[in-house]
Amino acid sequence: MLYSCRGVSKRIMDKGQQAEYTAFEEKVKRSVCLDYVSPQATESVLKEALNQFGNVKNVHFIPNYLGPNTIGRSVLIEMEDPKQSKDVIFTINKFPFMISGMPRPVRARAAEIEMFDHRPAKPGRKIKCRWVEPNDPDFKVAKRLKLLAKKHAAEAATLLKLQLEEEQKLAAQQSRSLRSHYKKFETLDGVMADGAIKRLGNRYNLNVGEE
Asked: How far is 174 from 170, CA to CA, in rounded Å?
């Protein structure tokens, strides 16, 4: 026995429901979905990073009920208008997305209706759920959907493993780059402090200022 749900269309539409759903569709058009956002990123951090594209109206973190809390999250960003959301998608997919001064492997794409956990029901459509017996015509369909869901879960787990490996490589690369830059600045600071820069300037007849 399997549990099956099916959408049923109805001809009668409520004007209030239609207006609510239309407003929701406009919200979707001006929203952006960011994938692989660091778990340490907060709403204020994301707003600060995205305010360069326009006014960020709302930030919603999509809950991850299956994976650990240490992996990257998906976030829905609502901008003020669709043009700003398109600018966010274009820029993030073309250039590194900087969060708190560090580049992050974030992917941006247009939001879709199914991404919103709190969304109004589509006017004229109602979902009906029922148990189906093995002799029911919908039993095979429900069984295929169940197997497909298991397949998608296995694929998602594999992709998650690859994603974590890539993030570890990126973190190691950023750490090496940070240490390298720190050593360079430390060397320059030492040269300025012990007067070596002035001696080099005198040796090669260069005008070296105090700064």
From this structure: 6
